[in-house]
Amino acid sequence: MRKLWLIFAQTVTVSLAVLFVVQTFHPNLLNSVDKTLVIKEAASTAKIGSAESYSVAAKKAMPSVVNVFTSKKAAPNPHRQFMDDPLFRHFFGDQPDDQTQRENSLGSGVIVSSDGLIVTNHHVVESADEIEIALADGRTVPAKIVGTDPETDLAVVKVDVKDLPAITFADAEQSSVGDVVLAIGNPFGVGQTVTQGIISALGRSHLGINTFENFIQTDAPINPGNSGGALIDTQGNLVGVNSAIYSRSGGSMGIGFAIPISLVKQVMEQIISQGSVTRGWIGIEAQDITPELAESFKLKQVRGSLIAGILRGSPAERAGLRPGDILLEINGNQVIDSSSMLNLISGLAPNKQATLVVARDEKEIKVPITIGKRPKPLSAKNDLKD
């Protein structure tokens, strides 16, 4: 044991002596070794950091995101009748001709087919007289509306350009809360911009934004001009179409909403094939079941949708539904609340048979019904009626 200790002590002494000699007579040699170690450490750090870069996803999706510019005639000047009055013109000056006044707005869109089909928001192109699309390669081309769906705030426009870079769609079932997402659009008209965040929530509804709501909530910064732009995953695939933000200032506050790709595809395919969206309808007014209502109706669970009113001549009236019935199931699918009821009924094909389960007089009964066609909305935002 003593011999081993002497060997160790002599080795350390010799090593220190060599280090002292090298440091004294060849200091540059040690500096070069230190630099080599620093370079290797930096390279290792860069390699690890590259996993946090989303440049590949952004480069893949950015050519598929376009800027949308619209214009329409401005509302008539309320003072038009006074413009020929000399006294009015003395105080207010010459007012521009109504015919020359136009309102301009901007938004974003996503190329979904190489032959020129682009998905955007309904509110971006609503009432527009002229639509221009600015492509990623710098070209600006006119566009025409193929169809719109105010109830989901989606629209499809088309440009007469071929071989465009169409975006790829993500698997709707794979999105999860906490997933990293990127928002691509044209905020405030500054040019194409990419922001990063996560999926904060899925299935957001009861927001009063659209009739049919199933939003992805994200904290990726979304600002005016981003509407209709792309929300993508880290592989560059389309997860949703940016639609709205919650804001008290007009800018991003970390609460943005995107229409999920599952709903986008459903609406887009109908618009492309028939120019509009056809939905099921039975003609009822409904409200959510509260704990108080559930107790008064002696329900076992707080679920379902209370039928508050029935339209005359509607499928619901013909099927024998009554105000006060509680709708529990539609074709075997549970009704959680009025929003889910609305989505389930809208997904049914008109003129087809369906089976409803309703609670009436503390009993559950099955009611066969022939589904009607949902009337066109008067506005983009409606009450919960079906």
From TrEMBL:
UniProt-listed SUPFAM superfamilies: PDZ domain-like, Trypsin-like serine proteases
Superkingdom of the organism of origin: Bacteria
CDD domains documented for this protein: cpPDZ1_DegP-like (cd10839)
Keyword Repeat: yes
Name of a matching Pfam family: PDZ_2
UniProt cross-references to PANTHER family, sorted A to Z: PEPTIDASE S12 (PTHR43343), PROTEASE DO-LIKE 8, CHLOROPLASTIC (PTHR43343:SF3)
Protein name, UniProt field: DegQ protease
